[in-house]
Automatic annotation (TrEMBL):
The keyword Signal is assigned to this record: yes
Taxonomic superkingdom: Eukaryota
Pfam families per record: Lectin_C
Keywords, comma-separated and alphabetical: Disulfide bond, Signal
Record flagged with keyword Disulfide bond: yes
Domain C-type lectin: 19-136, 141-250, 250-364
Organism for this UniProt entry: Anabas testudineus (Climbing perch)
Name of the molecule in the record: C-type lectin domain-containing protein
Length: 366
């Protein structure tokens, strides 16, 4: 890459820029859930989506009011409307990668929306049964460990325990197949559950923060809309959608451009019409961006990450530090005139592509 182009890219933004990919807004006016959804879509992006505990803390800090408020989670009851999820945020559940025992899942005891593992085989069980469970821990240095907890708890209680003392319930086949995971021949809760709850904006985030077991289970009469109760550490509850409550909206700072452009054309487009090509500096941002990438019309989507031969380094055009990466195995290497893309499918990993290829791209907004 020519030195003049490198200077253009780095100097195109006059100041260091760091922002959240979305912001929360607390609306104190009381409305029904449907009215709140309409208000948020007209004035912001949608009712609040909450993807993990970091989001939950940000949402709580967006107001000093201690009250119950709508969020963008709605239940569509019915056994056929249930969807399986991994408990650990960011992992996508695949129906083709499961370990069900023979004739499972079967709802043998009624509504069975949580999963026990015995000798690597899965069975669906009622979530309010009490069993031992496995927690997963990961440190900032990416050290991992597994913990079999002998205390008998319901599935939501086990999930809460793991999140408070470790990272989460064991989740994903990579964790279940890890050599460090040792479990005796006993039934153990793992991080698989299903429910009929959907986010208003259509995102597929699995994060739930229920106060009571009953809110996780399908078929709760007319209580089909979710609230967060700010004076109980932000735990969630369900309520009649026709009740009037204050609510949280969110404003998305990302936009997927379904046009195919070269990397430089994409950069210029974002800077002329929005702010910049998107930067990803942590796993949470990766999860948020990959939800957008899934709706792209090209196999890959440009990111704001480029390699410069002049300085022999990869850099974000927004001046963010390249601390977090999500390269596919064996892909990253230092080649001139290459920029990073995220794959639309699979595990949404990063690949390098020549700058003159054309793909969709994601812009960050002011």
């Amino acid at each position: 890459m020519q030195w003049s182009l490198f200077l253009f890219i780095l100097m195109g933004q006059s100041s260091f820029f760091t922002c959240h990919m979305y912001v929360y807004h607390f609306i104190g006016e009381k409305k029904t859930w449907d009215e709140a959804q309409k208000y948020c879509r007209e004035n912001y992006t949608d009712l609040a989506t909450v993807s993990n505990m970091t989001d939950m803390e940000r949402l709580r800090k967006s107001t000093e009011t201690l009250t119950e408020a709508w969020i963008g989670l709605h239940s569509y009851p019915g056994k056929n409307n249930r969807r399986w999820y991994w408990s650990l945020p960011g992992l996508e559940f695949s129906e083709t990668q499961t370990r069900w025992d023979s004739e499972e899942p079967n709802d043998y005891r009624g509504q069975e929306n949580c999963v026990l593992m015995n000798d690597q085989k899965w069975s669906d069980y009622p979530c309010n049964d009490k069993h031992q469970f496995i927690c997963y821990s990961e440190t900032k240095q990416f050290n991992k460990s597994f913990h079999v907890i002998s205390s008998m708890m319901t599935w939501p209680q086990a999930q809460r325990y793991c999140r408070e003392h470790h990272t989460d319930l064991v989740s994903g086949l990579d964790q279940l197949d890890d050599d460090c995971l040792i479990s005796d021949s006993v039934k153990l809760w793992i991080g698989v559950f299903r429910d009929t709850w959907r986010w208003s904006d259509g995102k597929n985030f699995s994060f739930r923060n229920w106060e009571n077991v009953e809110d996780l289970v399908d078929g709760q009469s007319d209580k089909k809309c979710a609230t967060t109760v700010l004076n109980t550490a932000g735990k969630w509850s369900s309520a009649d959608c026709n009740e009037e409550k204050p609510f949280f909206c969110y404003d998305d700072k990302l936009i997927l451009i379904n046009e195919s452009k070269t990397w430089v054309e994409a950069l210029n487009y974002c800077r002329e019409k929005h702010y910049d090509l998107v930067s990803i500096t942590n796993p949470h941002q990766q999860r948020w961006v990959q939800e957008r990438v899934k709706k792209a019309s090209t196999e890959f989507v440009w990111l704001g990450l480029r390699y410069t031969c002049t300085l022999d380094l990869w850099f974000w055009v927004s001046d963010e530090v390249v601390s977090y990466t999500n390269w596919a195995s064996g892909v990253k290497s230092d080649d001139c005139d290459m920029s990073a893309v995220m794959e639309r499918g699979g595990r949404n990993q990063w690949f390098k592509k020549p700058d003159n290829e054309t793909f969709n791209f994601i812009c960050s907004k002011n």
